[in-house]
Amino acid sequence: MTLNLTMAIIRSVPDSSDTKLRLRLSRAGVRPTRQRLTVLKALAAEQHDATAQEIYARLRRRGERVGLATVYRTLSLLSEREVVDELAHHPTETCYRLCSPGHHHHLVCSECHRVEELGSCDLEPWLDRAAGSRGFVPTSHTLEVVGLCAGCRAS
Amino acid sequence: MTLNLTMAIIRSVPDSSDTKLRLRLSRAGVRPTRQRLTVLKALAAEQHDATAQEIYARLRRRGERVGLATVYRTLSLLSEREVVDELAHHPTETCYRLCSPGHHHHLVCSECHRVEELGSCDLEPWLDRAAGSRGFVPTSHTLEVVGLCAGCRAS
DNA sequence: ATAATTGCAAAGCGTTTGCACCCTG
DNA sequence: CAGGGTGCAAACGCTTTGCAATTAT
User: Fold this and answer.
1) 3-class DSSP state for residue B67?
2) A·B CB contacts under 8 A
3) What is the pLDDT of residues B88-131, one digit of tens each?
4) Do B140 and A127 count as a contact with CB atoms less than 8 A apart?
């Protein structure tokens, strides 16, 4: 039981050691500069999703030397290379989240804004059937679920 | 056959007669001004979704007297009152669509940007099960499907 | 050495807002 | 006539871009 819990925690929290993050970058063909590592590390430390501005502010407060433009450029590059996820639930600004690889969806808590991954999406068969009857062939889909997480429900 | 087609067309194209649109507004508790009717009519005439700027440009080109701010204010009000749907698939600007009432999702064609409604969403049971195992209680969800519509697939 | 990356400040762009005027009820 | 609605232009907030200096391979 304790082991299961521990494993679950290990699996759910992205590894934020420098080497692992560096590896994530080079695997994606992204040159691992000091700034990019810094941004990625900040994102890895987040429970919630974060905007470019939030990450920038957090890093500057901490005394890190990064430019706002670099944060934007980094996040957009990482999102393009599928190192980070882009969430659409906020209309005016883009939110980013460091997630596990592979297709999945997100549970966003409306109370504390914590983001959980909803792995293993078996929506495709249903989707293909529903859309197919209209001659529509799906190539991609995004599902965002808003609700209350376990923690917030308790209080 | 002809009858079926006709009925399908009637059902799929929102009624854009002034009286019907006027009714939609008052039912939503929105005062039916000339500008609001104009915006709603423009939206009803769209096959695709449309941004505030697009609708504004279209109306001005047609010689209609509306301000850009009014278009923004109208669309946001109508979206709030659930007269129109708001699509999130475009990151930088908000797209609007006049849809049939009730919970549904959207099929967006990546080629021609036509938007089709995916009625009858029986996702909830699946969602409750998937999220529930994490203690997460969904309150709402949005699903956006991108793909190729029948017309574009043919060419 | 060479090409990519960064920082800054300026520009861009979609959207919102203040306010005087106008209309509708 | 009272109160919401409108138009214009200015203000806003997020994001991108031009360019010279810097850094990684």
Assistant:
1) coil
2) 94
3) 888 889 999 998 888 899 999 988 888 999 887 888 888 999 99
4) no
CA distances (Å), A139 to each of A126, A132, B55, B94, in order?
14, 12, 28, 22
Please name which of B99, B54, B91, B47 lies closest in space to residue B72, comparing C-alpha atoms. B54
Domain boundaries, chain A: 1-99, 103-155
| The CATH number, out of the four listed (3.30.420.40, 3.40.50.720, 3.30.1490.190, 3.40.50.300), of the domain defined by the range A103-155 | 3.30.1490.190
Nucleotide with the nearest C1' to B53 CA: C14
CB B150 within 8 A of CB A134: yes
The Cα B109–Cα A117 span in angstroms is: 27
Q: How do residues A79-137 score in pLDDT, each as one tens digit? A: 999 999 999 888 889 999 998 888 899 999 988 888 999 887 888 888 999 999 999 99
Task: Please state which CATH number belongs to domain A1-99.
Answer: 1.10.10.10
Record: contact A146-B134, CB cut-off 8 A: no
B61 CA – C23 C1', rounded, Å: 24
